[in-house]
Amino acid sequence: MYDKTISSAVIKRLPRYYRYLGELLENDVVRISSKELSEKMNVTASQIRQDLNNFGGFGQQGYGYNVEYLYTEIGKILGLDKKYNVIIIGAGNLGQALANYTDFERRGFYICGIFDVNPRLIGISIRGIEIRLIDELEEFMKTNTVNIAALTIPKAKAPQVAADLVSLGIHAIWNFAPTDLNLPKDVMVENVHLAESLMRLSYNLKAAEESGESI
Ligand code: NAI
């Protein structure tokens, strides 16, 4: 078994390896050297070797990496060989967009319920899943296994709703509301903030402008 204390920087890079390897597989590439992979991914070959050594390597001297094997193993490390049931709390613009995205299922994430407080949304079906009233969530949790809750509600509501989700047994929250959730340590929260990503882009644009680079 691999070391559990792998740095979060490495963990953050794994989905990107997974994506590239998936593309190679789709193109029937059987094996790849760390050098070739590094050219494709624009990271150094030694970074790739170092990253993958955290999990016992997977490569063979003089052969490189077996693409399918590496893809499968990284998938296992990321827990993608399992199936996760996801509920979406907040069926507004973002909640509906997430529910409409079919590719999550390919990765093992299945939307099994969508909840909202707005009675006008109740009964509307998104890809076969009816939006339910949030009051039904407690009952739903008793009869369904739910692994992850996506939070796509206004920021003012998010802390309380997150706490309610935890008391109903949720341990993993995919938080889109632009606020920090202070939850017990055993609850995993993954924050997704597109605006923060845009701010990094604006920082880079500004830095390039100031250094006189043409953009
Ligand atoms: P929206 O107003 O279209 O949808 C919010 C939905 O949440 C509404 O349908 C509303 O009825 C429902 N809602 C409100 N209180 C609720 C509760 N207690 N329980 C269940 N449902 C409840 O808003 P939009 O555009 O979909 O944004 C949703 C959230 O996502 C906001 O907090 C927004 O700031 C955030 N957001 C985050 C992004 C990111 O990158 N993380 C990008 C876009 C939006």
Automatic annotation (TrEMBL):
Main location: cytoplasm
Segments crossing the lipid bilayer: none
One Gene Ontology cellular component: cytoplasm
UniProt-annotated location(s): Cytoplasm
One Pfam assignment: Put_DNA-bind_N
Residue span, CoA-binding domain: 79-180
SUPFAM superfamilies associated with the record: NAD(P)-binding Rossmann-fold domains, Winged helix' DNA-binding domain
GO biological process: negative regulation of DNA-templated transcription; response to redox state
The keyword Lipid metabolism is annotated on this UniProt entry: no
UniProt keyword annotations, A-Z: Cytoplasm, DNA-binding, NAD, Repressor, Transcription, Transcription regulation
GO molecular function, one term: DNA binding
Keyword Ribonucleoprotein: no
Classification via Gene3D superfamilies: NAD(P)-binding Rossmann-like Domain, Winged helix-like DNA-binding domain superfamily/Winged helix DNA-binding domain
InterPro entries: CoA-bd, NAD(P)-bd_dom_sf, Rex_actinobacterial-type, Rex_DNA-bd_C_dom, Tscrpt_rep_Rex, WH-like_DNA-bd_sf, WH_DNA-bd_sf
Top-level taxonomic group: Bacteria
DNA-binding positions: 16-55
Binding site for NAD(+): G90, A91, G92, N93, L94, G95
Subunit structure: Homodimer.
Primary role: Modulates transcription in response to changes in cellular NADH/NAD(+) redox state.
Family to which this protein belongs: Belongs to the transcriptional regulatory Rex family.
Protein name in UniProt: Redox-sensing transcriptional repressor Rex
Gene name as annotated: rex
